[in-house]
Amino acid sequence: MYEIKSTSLLKEVMKNYFLELDKGNRKIAWCTSVGPAELLRSFGFEVYFPENHGALLGASRTADNYIPVAQKCGFSNQICSYTTSDIGSFLSNETPLTKHYGIKSVPKPDLLVYCTNQCREVEDWFSFYADHFKCPIVGIHPPRYLDEISGEEINLVVAQLKKLVSVCEQVSGTSFDLDKFKEVLKLSKEATLLWQKVLKTSTATPAPISFFDGTIHMGPIVVLRGTQQAMDYYTALLAELEENVKTGKGFLEKESRRIFWDGMPIWGKLRLLSNVFSKDNAAVVASTYCNSWIFDDFDENNPFTSSALAYTEIFINRSEKAKMEFFRKWISEYRIDGVIFHDAKTCFNNSNSRFGMPLRLKQSLGIPTLIVEGDLNDSRFFSEGQTVSKIEAFIEQLENQKISI
Ligand code: SF4
Questions:
Q1: Are the C-beta atoms of 346 and 79 separated by less than 8 Å?
Q2: What are 284's strand-pairing partners?
Q3: Looking at the whole model, is its pTM more than 0.90?
Q4: How remote is the CA of residue 248 from the centroid of ligand 1, in Å?
């Protein structure tokens, strides 16, 4: 059976990250998953990411217990189920970190920093904690939905990042150190490029890492960006996957069709879905989600401008037209036969099927597409029978197309 051996190292890296946070030796900044973690780390903050906690709640299938708790406090169960399950678990005084690492609770923040380059929900989510902990909160608001990004827009974000500097100085009690910021950004860039290479190993046939594996192995690029640990981890993972490409080892023995997954993972159903695809030799080789943590424009010689650019130009923050270009590139690079769009009911921000994208892709590239309904964390919105049947029929359609070509 195929397994990625670096998984044991991954578990070690993630465990050490959480245990270090739990020691409480350093000031802690909470940050959104595509927020300016490098700047925070340059002040010596440990950085904690509530979205990662949301994903843990989903993957451990405990999110459903907590969503109603947040609902009682006024959060609709139609909004981001990371937000509602995370707040609900906090109010219930429970966390999957206890079972995994023996940690009683999530770390207390000294500073909260969110970036609305992914959605406005993070502002409300973090504001709840700012009120609760009476803690300083700073928002970065990059311009959204742009086709092209101009210098003017980048300057706006640079100004916001510079405002964040003075708050970080106050909270950390440390003066800003440009060299330190450059150093952290360089580490982050190196890790992000390694992560990109990891994902691109699956341009090979057979592909050595699936979308489902990617959702697990992306842990360090989310929570440890800007550290040596992230770099070391992706160096090891890449070496293993490149070796597998060389020796022709893929996650499927026989890869018949190559599929792209758009949108959020359905965290509680990763294994089930992975099996649905693999039993029919369909390889899910790439995704918008795993590609979201590639910041190849970071440049330590120009740390503020390049951070502003990298965090503004990401896929989720862009116009439909710009997203279409991302899709074109990925579809050709990974030689994709079909695209599955996950319409996540509580995250319209990361559901790209609602404004005609599947149809446009079909019309312009002739690529078959399928929309599946579900959610990242809220299982009420996922029907197993219906989704499995839809995916099986889609794979069959791709197979028939192959035969008729
Ligand atoms: S992008 Fe979606 S899943 Fe992520 S925090 Fe925003 S609403 Fe929630």
A1: yes
A2: 259
A3: yes
A4: 37
